[in-house]
Amino acid sequence: MPTDQKVCPCGSGASFEHCCGPCILGKEPAKTAEALMRSRYSAYCRGEVDYLVATTAVETRDQHPAAAIRDWNRGIEWLALQINETAAGKPADTGGTVDFTAIYRENGRIRTLRELSRFVRKDGNWYYLDGVHKKAKLDRNQPCPCGSGRKLKKCCGQATSMPPAGL
Is 37 inside a domain boundary? Predict the structure, then answer.
């Protein structure tokens, strides 16, 4: 869970209540594939497993059972989300992709997850369909995402991990 619940975990800079909150709380659907991607990241940060299951397309939902999501996410501290590229996924589209990198800490190590996710829109709602992991690498000279103010190479180091698709 992020330390400041007022700022949305997705990195938009907006407050949670004006960003991903309405989607996660069921007040309004995500308007774009990227908005759904961001809300799903925020749901992982907040442990909102029911939302993650509900926003997975029916045809792939059995590949992402709630218990597996909960177990994998239990030891994760989510640090940052970077949207690398989007294609389609606008309100009038029926599909779209989001290439993202999520940075997280697991077992004391900074890890990255880069995925090209596919989304579909059915009956006015966006759903995560599936994703393909891509090689992700953090710049060792960038500031460490843990917030220490030191460079990554002098702080938490770097490792990569291949968690289950479906962020």
Answer: yes
